[in-house]
Write a structure and sequence with these properties.
By secondary structure, this protein is mainly alpha-helical. The chain contains eight helices and two strands, in the order H-H-H-H-H-E-H-H-E-H.
């Protein structure tokens, strides 16, 4: 079992943590998206008007989190394309729990597509829980999760670490599986 000694060096686990929290951030974007969608009875799901409204709502909701317009629009277009395929009846046609599962999967797929080297080329590593491991998770979280405020970041990061410690009481293996990512996302970001 490895022990982290990472205080003053760039580390592979930190890069994995950034990737993990980018995935979580994307799922959060999707959750925020779900909360801003309202049902308009005159619109047919995924018509031009429906899609334009969804795009504008997502763009407005995520302007602060993702200030780069190109990055934000690329993410939104990816999500809308996937939602059209995965939720053909429109956002309102699935339960919130089902939506969260779909959203987490889309978020992970987007992260894997945009950061393919962050999981494929690296070895898995197992680390005993320590202050250094928690510090590295916090660093990764702060780099990967674009929080609304410092308090929001601390609250979400504390929740993620607490959930991971319950799931893995002795040590943590990175990168985390997609299933673990979805489970943590659903419990900490609802």
């Amino acid at each position: 079992m490895k022990h982290l000694r990472l205080r003053n060096q760039r580390s592979r686990p930190n890069e994995k943590h950034v990737f993990i929290f980018k995935c979580l951030n994307i799922a959060i974007v999707l959750l925020a998206f779900a909360s801003c969608i309202s049902n308009h009875p005159k619109e047919k799901p995924w018509s031009k008007a429906y899609t334009d409204r969804v795009f504008k709502q997502m763009d407005s909701a995520e302007l602060q989190r993702i200030p780069d317009v190109n990055e934000r629009h690329k993410l939104i277009r990816f999500m809308i394309d996937r939602f059209k395929r995965d939720v053909p009846g429109g956002m309102e046609s699935v339960s919130r729990d089902s939506f969260m599962t779909i959203a987490a999967k889309i978020g992970l797929d987007y992260a894997h597509q945009t950061e393919p080297d962050s999981t494929s080329a690296d070895e898995h590593g197992t680390y005993k829980w320590s202050d250094d491991v928690e510090d590295q998770l916090r660093v990764g979280f702060s780099q990967g999760y674009k929080a609304k405020s410092p308090e929001d970041a601390k609250e979400k990061c504390d929740c993620v670490i607490a959930k991971l410690k319950v799931m893995y009481p002795d040590s943590i293996t990175v990168p985390l599986s997609d299933e673990t990512m979805m489970q943590v996302t659903k419990s900490c970001f609802q």
